[in-house]
Amino acid sequence: MKYCVLTLGCKVNSYESDYVKEQFNSCGFKEVGVKEGAEIVVVNTCSVTNQSDAKSRQIIRLARRENPNAILVVMGCSAQNHKEKLLDLGIDILIGTKDKSKILELIKEFKGSKKTISKFYDMSKQDFEDMTLMCEENKTRAFVKIQDGCNNFCSYCIIPYLRGNIRSKRINVAVKEISDLVNSGHSEVVLTGIHTGSYGRGEAYDLVDLIREISSLEGLKRIRISSIEITELNDKFMEELKTNPKICDHLHIPLQSGSDAILNFMNRKYDTKYFLNKIEQIRQIRPNISITTDLILGFPHEEDEYFNETYEFLKKVGFVKIHTFPFSLRNGTKAEEMKDYFVNDTIKKERVRKVLELSKQLESNYYREFLGREVSVIIETVKDGISKGHTSNYILVNVNADLESGKEYLVKIVSVDGVNVNGELL
């Protein structure tokens, strides 16, 4: 049978989609594009913003239009959030954020009954749903989902309601999966989850324990963390950062706002003083580390004064890259109660534009610091005589040579054009 998997949203969704693909491949199914006559189409949806929901519906309609006779499976956060609104889109199997590991069973059930399947659960009471990948197509970097759910309930965020409570993959299962991925050729692993830093909470182990376990794997050169909250960078993590060279020189730490007033309205668990102190501690340990962040602009109550505080704080921290999003109301969140304080869309767009300009400037400035320096690059893609790969601190380097994908090379940075970095092989 021919199948197609369409994925929206975060790295956790990508991991879960890759698992579904592996299950199909193990049955001898062939992956095709959405316009190539698939007999099964799976859409893994996202609901982090209104735009994500709209895009999810658009992709579902496209999948059905291009494959009128296919079994259409829709799953994920937007399905969990809007199941009633999706029922009239010709979906055969509709599930939320649970049972993604059971797609083959659900398809078999549907084939037998020919009746629409719709399964949803109270996500606040679920255990971790085990999925393990045997091999990812990218032989350099493997994403591994180690955690699911979030208990933070930031006032802008719908995800805790859709993904449910914090829960973790058992450490022995995670270590085995990562060991298998390394043995199949992956030299870098990215630990990912909805709230990755909470890994192991309630268990006898935590994120640092997992990092220590996998650091002993001989073929594993880099351990990258997809995202971690500033409040989870405790003394144990800091000590590991100091002593473990396999941890990448890159941390993605969401800020969301650089104004204490807005952070309070957002129900974040820190203030700017705490955030800055932690960043300074990190840079004392790793002076050249790349620190990137997420930012929401135009949150309710964000007056010009508060935006200006954020803008100045971004410069003070000196992030390498700022992933910037305009505030998007999620019905059912605490932010819905702040409707009288919403920010005009035009103002939001202008603020996003201004911060994105700053981000490009900061990124280019950081890259220029490495001009003339030797860096280690693991090659990921090779095309038309140009090899591309990332450094430990997540600089994408272009090398004018035919190199071997998955291999590590010593490269000298010779030019930086904006955010494009070029190196020559040593």
Describe this structure in words.
By secondary structure, the protein is α/β, with parallel strands linked by helices. The protein folds into 4 domains: 2-121, Rossmann fold (3-Layer(aba) Sandwich); 124-248, Transcription Regulator spoIIAA, CATH 3.30.750.210; 251-368, Transcription Regulator spoIIAA; 374-425, Nucleic acid-binding proteins (OB fold (Dihydrolipoamide Acetyltransferase, E2P)). It has 13 helices and 19 strands. A 6-stranded parallel β-sheet has the order 2-1-3-4-5-6, sandwiched between helices. Helix 8 links the parallel strand 10 and strand 11 (222-225). It starts with a strand and ends with a strand.
Question: Which key terms come to mind for this protein?
Answer:
5-stranded mixed barrel, alpha/beta, Rossmann fold, single chain, 426 residues, Transcription Regulator spoIIAA
Task: Chart the SSEs and their pairings.
Elements (H helix, E strand, L loop, with lengths): L1 E6 L3 H16 L3 E2 L8 E6 L4 H17 L4 E6 H5 L1 H4 L6 E3 L7 H11 L3 E3 L21 E5 L1 E2 L10 H5 L3 E2 L2 H13 L4 E5 L14 H9 L6 E4 L9 H9 L6 E3 L7 H7 L5 H14 L4 E8 L6 H14 L3 E6 L18 H24 L5 E10 L2 E5 L5 E4 L8 E10 L2 E6 L1
Parallel strand pairs: 1-2, 1-3, 3-4, 4-5, 5-6, 7-10, 10-11, 12-13, 13-14, 17-19
Antiparallel strand pairs: 8-9, 15-16, 15-18, 16-17, 18-19
